[in-house]
Structures are given as C-alpha cells and as structure tokens.
Amino acid sequence: MKILTILVVDDDPVIRRLLQQRLKKENYNVLVAADGYKAQSILQEKHVDVVLTDLMMPGDIGGIEVTEIAKNINKNIEVILITAHSSVDTAVEAMKKGASDYLEKPINFDELFLRLDKIANVQTIFRSAQELQHAMDVTEHAASETIQALEMKTAELQGLLDEVENILRDHDSSEEVRITRALDKISGI
Q: 42 and 31 in contact (C-beta within 8 Å)?
C-alpha cells in the first residue's frame, strides 16, 4: 500500500505540531501549513493525497476554501476537516463541496488512522483499476490491429483463390498449362 502524503492545515501551532508528529510516527509523509494561503501554495507546488484541515481559520481562506482549492487542483485529493462540535453543520456543508470526511476536536487518532487507511485502500484500488484499464486498452488495440491484419490477409488469400479458380476454369489453355500457372500463382504466397 502506498504511503500517503498528507497536508496538515491548522492555525494552532500546538495542534499542527501534534498532528505532524503523530502522522510521521505512523510513517506518513507530512507537509504543514499555518493558514489557507500557505496551504494553497503547497497544493500548487507539491503532490498531496490528503488534506487534513481545520475548518475555522482566520483570514479569507478557511477549511471550506482549502477544500475547494484542493479539489480544483486535483479532484482526487481527499479532504478531512477538523471541527469543533459546534461547527458540525458547517462541516457537513463542506462535505457537499467535496470534503470526504470530518473529525471533531479533540481528535481521536485511532479514528483518524482508520480513515486514512480507508483512503489509502481506495486510492490503491483506484490505481489498480486505472492500470487494469490501461492494460485492457493496450490489449484491445493490439487485438484490433491483429484482426485488421487477419482481415487483410484473408481478403488477399480470397483474391488469390479467385485468380487460381479463374486460371483453372480457363479452357482455352491445356490442363497442364492451367495447373502449372495455378501452382506458380500459389507458390508465390
């Protein structure tokens, strides 16, 4: 299973550091951003599989906006929102805009890791499906070329058979001449 790259976006340095340490301990690649502006910059510059973002942050770019930015950059980026209990309705609204899940504060790390495992499994299945589709496309293309080549060869052989038949039906020539001409035609295959 692929190791996920996770972007942690939180204006609280303690939560940001805690998430970073716990995620790294579980062998995830971790990037951090103190606000939505920095998150936007990272999303534009680096590959990210999952954004783990605080819903409420100061400035014009909060968790909902980070979700929209991430989805505009790559629709396959998964976004998990971190929210206080009072903003669950807002988190649900953010999920309508593309967030895949939300967690309430204080963060239950077992729950977070289960969700990340689920995301990793889905991405692995998705990648496998893409690879299978590519293999099927290559096979279909090769089969199409083979069928086309066989159809051309069949048409060529049918034309040759028609010529041999015409030679053998030509009663203006002797039987020996017709057979020799027919054999000469066939030997050129």
A: yes
**Distant-in-sequence, close-in-space partners of 18: CB < 8 Å, separation ≥ 6:** none
Is the pTM for the entire model greater than 0.85?
A: no
Q: Residue 90's domain is classified under what CATH number?
A: 3.40.50.2300
Residue 153, classed as helix, strand or coil, is helix
pLDDT per residue over 86-112, tens digit each?
Answer: 666 776 777 788 888 888 888 999 999
Dist CA 148 CA 44 (whole Å): 45
Burial label, 130 (beta-carbon count in 10 A; 0-12, 13-18, 19+): exposed
The reply to whether 99 and 39 lie within a common domain is yes
Model confidence pLDDT, tens digit, residues 138-178: 999 999 999 999 999 999 999 999 999 998 898 888 888 88
8 Å CB contact between 27 and 51 = no
CA distance 121 to 127: 10
SS3 130: helix
Least Cα distance to 183 among 164, 162, 155, 158 occurs for 164
Residue reference for tokens 């895949």: 100
Residue 158 located in a structural domain: yes
Neighbours of 53 (CB within 10 A): 29
61: helix, coil or strand? coil
